[in-house]
Amino acid sequence: MIVPVLFCELRLAMPTIEENVRQWNVTRSWPSGGEQWSGAWGNSNAQWYGCIYPRIQRFVPAPTILELAPGFGRWTRFLLEQCDTYIGVDVSSKCTEACAERFSAHTGASFYTNDGSSLPMVADSSVDFAFSFDSFVHVEADTLASYLKELARVLTPEGAGFIHHSNSGAYERLIRTVAPLQLDRLPRRVRLRLERIGVMTNVHWRATSVTAARFVESCQDAGLHCVGQELVNWGGGIPLIDAMSVVTRPGSRWDRPNRVVRNWLFRTEARAIRRSISV
After folding, report:
1. What's residue 168's pLDDT?
2. In 3-state terms, the chain is what percent helix, strand and coil (to 5)?
3. Which of 133, 210, 216, 253 could form a disulfide with 226, with the two C-beta atoms 3.0–4.6 Å apart?
4. Is the pLDDT of residue 188 over 70?
5. What Å distances lie between residue 263 and 1, 178, 207, CA to CA?
């Protein structure tokens, strides 16, 4: 049977909260503040205006914005222009300290280090728009469910959230079928090349317990509605390993039946944006 070989995962290790703390506090040196992760789009400016902002523009500006896992503030600098009050929460103290220093001139901005699953520093019904991009893809299903319960508490009645998370778990059966192949021993450049031709690898350290469908269920369990999902091929191959989901409170102006879009041209879009800024 050929199909299982076309979708391979390098490892089944799940990124725990502790591993995330170690990864972003110790392992990552943040030489360019995360700018390197926008390379496929050219730079973070191009990625924001060409990729992210068009997907969230209906929700901003908003009086109060909550950003989950801001890192070193790659998207924070844009979000600050869209609100009066900004709250950034990250499991990494290294990140929150860097952001507090970088954005110290913004009196409406505050940054907090949390336990990786709860938001005790955020008041009930106080957030108009919650945002997380390029971070929660490393968060497993149980942790993601905890955050959704917190979002159900902190969102205003008309609030909404835009969460970029993993969909790698959708390929779990195929992953386990080929796990003994030990593809993690291949050089990274080889793994990336395999991914581009449709061989699924986990060089992007995605959470393998999360799927778009399970995210919807977690929203329901938390008392939220998921009203839109875009599944994308982050690495450029066939597998749609990521999802961008919109959540809201039941009965809000954003509430509607969930709409799911499968976008196999996501990285093609990124290349087009990169080319456009070089003209």
Report:
1. 87
2. 45, 20, 35
3. 216
4. no
5. 27, 25, 20
Q: Which fold has domain 3-277?
A: Rossmann fold (3.40.50)
- Mean residue pLDDT across the chain: 86
- DSSP sequence for 77-114: HHHGGG-SEEEEEES-HHHHHHHHHHTTT-TTEEEEE-
Closest CA to 122 of 151, 160, 146, 157: 151
Taking CA 90 as the corner, what is the angle to CA 92 and CA 267, rounded to the nearest 5 degrees?
A: 100
Confidence of residue 105 (pLDDT cuts 50, 70, 90): very high
Average pLDDT over residues 155-178: 85
Domain ranges in the chain are 3-277
DSSP 8-class letter at 202: -
Q: How many CA atoms lie less than 13 Å away from 117 in the CB half-sphere?
A: 10
Cβ atoms of 129 and 159 within 8 Å: the answer is yes
Given a cut of 60, whether residue 4 has pLDDT beyond it is no
Say how far apart CA 106 and CA 263 lie, in whole Å: 37
Sheet holding 85-90, edge to edge: 109-113, 85-90, 64-68, 127-132, 155-166, 242-248, 225-232, 259-263
**What are the structure tokens assigned to 118, written together?**
């709860």
Distance CA 225, CA 88 (A): 23
